[in-house]
Design goal:
Length: 139
């Protein structure tokens, strides 16, 4: 009898806080139960229609690659795909979850304060708009 592996999406922003999702998924699932997709969204803000230099884009891509490689190393016994993309984090997480029909999204609670909290966190936006099971890991 064959069972399908659960598809898990783990968005990472490179903070230590976001990396807690990796430990949590290892507590919840054995390596033969899941396939994991790590997603890092590069959010670039363009102000007054200023174009970004190739250096800024390359540095952002290199930073994203380092984040994803570090996370993959922590999940070395699991089946892992790592994806880096440009856009708004919540939109890209929601799009990826919807298009690839993930069974669950595992992400950490925001620890932002002040203005960032007033605007709303990525986690809150995903929670409001997803139809995918969302597991929010405490800090």
């Amino acid at each position: 009898m064959t069972t399908d592996k659960k598809k898990i999406l783990i968005p990472l922003d490179g903070t230590d806080r976001s990396m807690h999702s990796l430990d949590y998924v290892k507590q919840l699932f054995r390596k033969d139960e899941v396939t994991i997709t790590l997603l890092n969204v590069l959010e670039i803000v363009i102000i007054n229609d200023m174009m970004l230099s190739d250096t800024v884009v390359t540095n952002s891509e290199n930073e994203s690659k380092a984040i994803l490689e570090g996370a993959k190393a922590q999940l070395q016994d699991y089946t892992v795909e790592a994806i880096s993309t440009f856009g708004y984090a919540s939109d890209e997480i929601l799009r990826k979850a919807r298009e690839d029909k993930f069974d669950a999204i595992i992400m950490t609670k925001s620890s932002k304060k002040g203005l960032a909290r007033m605007i709303g966190s990525v986690t809150r936006k995903v929670l409001q708009d997803t139809r995918t099971l969302l597991i929010i890991v405490p800090e």
